[in-house]
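Renewal narrative, Specific Aim 1. Our central claim is that a sequence can be written position by position from structural information alone. The example that follows is taken directly from our test logs and has not been curated for this report. It begins with the structure tokens describing the chain, in the order in which they were read.
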């Protein structure tokens, strides 16, 4: 394997630009000995994005050597990135079978949805109690930004418009950002990622069961702006339950598929 490091004037190893550009990422100049760690984070980010978008489907085997070649990085960088994703619940590891994308199942869908409803509902309730005028303005702004982009591609309703996905994540995070608890936010972020895989799978499999997502989000926002915590949490819970129902319907329509939930 070629040496992917060069030596700068300080005598410390420095990551070669070719390696960073090979995975489409660049980093701010910083301490030279932090770059290998940043490289691992870059690989982790790419794999995370591919798992959440289901480009890497549930159950997909992840070959360390193949990924190292694809990203032009070391085996150690890929192994560390996969280990981090194991900790996040997005990848599973076993001594005999190596790494693979965590599978999905109806039981897991229900568990993720109920737990997310509990955690995110509590975070929203606390945010309504503690949030100031700037937080309310941020909620309005994030909702307006989300409404400004289409839910799916006009010529392909089975795929989310990527900018919508980004703004959707920001919207839901803004709703709970004033809760005052990093623990709550951390648990909430993990559950959001797990839910994201199911939502992506559902829209790819079946778009016949239409929903008015903007109206669902609007109901949450209106109650939040009124500081009606009970109504806001109820609207949030209904929103998550609707997603779960559509995932289950999509699965029943494709029960013969090898990647069915």
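The sequence written for that structure reads:
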């Amino acid at each position: 394997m070629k040496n992917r490091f060069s030596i700068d004037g300080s005598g410390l190893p420095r990551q070669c630009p070719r390696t960073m550009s090979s995975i489409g990422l660049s980093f701010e100049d910083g301490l030279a000995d932090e770059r290998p760690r940043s490289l691992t984070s870059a690989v982790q980010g790419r794999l995370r994005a591919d798992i959440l978008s289901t480009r890497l489907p549930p159950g997909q085997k992840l070959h360390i050597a193949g990924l190292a070649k694809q990203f032009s990085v070391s085996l150690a960088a890929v192994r560390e990135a996969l280990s981090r994703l194991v900790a996040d619940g997005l990848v599973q590891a076993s001594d005999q079978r190596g790494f693979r994308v965590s599978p999905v199942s109806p039981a897991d869908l229900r568990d993720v949805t109920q737990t997310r409803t509990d955690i995110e509902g509590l975070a929203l309730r606390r945010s309504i109690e503690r949030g100031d005028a700037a937080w309310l303005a941020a909620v309005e702004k994030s909702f307006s930004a989300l409404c400004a982009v289409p839910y799916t591609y006009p010529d392909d309703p089975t795929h989310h418009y990527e900018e919508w996905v980004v703004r959707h994540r920001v919207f839901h995070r803004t709703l709970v950002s004033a809760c005052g608890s990093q623990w709550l936010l951390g648990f909430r972020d993990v559950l959001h990622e797990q839910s994201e895989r199911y939502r992506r799978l559902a829209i790819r499999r079946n778009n016949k069961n239409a929903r008015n997502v903007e109206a669902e989000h609007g109901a949450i926002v209106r109650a939040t702006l009124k500081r009606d915590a009970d109504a806001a949490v109820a609207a949030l819970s209904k929103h998550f339950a609707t997603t779960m129902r559509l995932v289950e319907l999509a699965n029943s329509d494709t029960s013969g598929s090898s990647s069915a939930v």
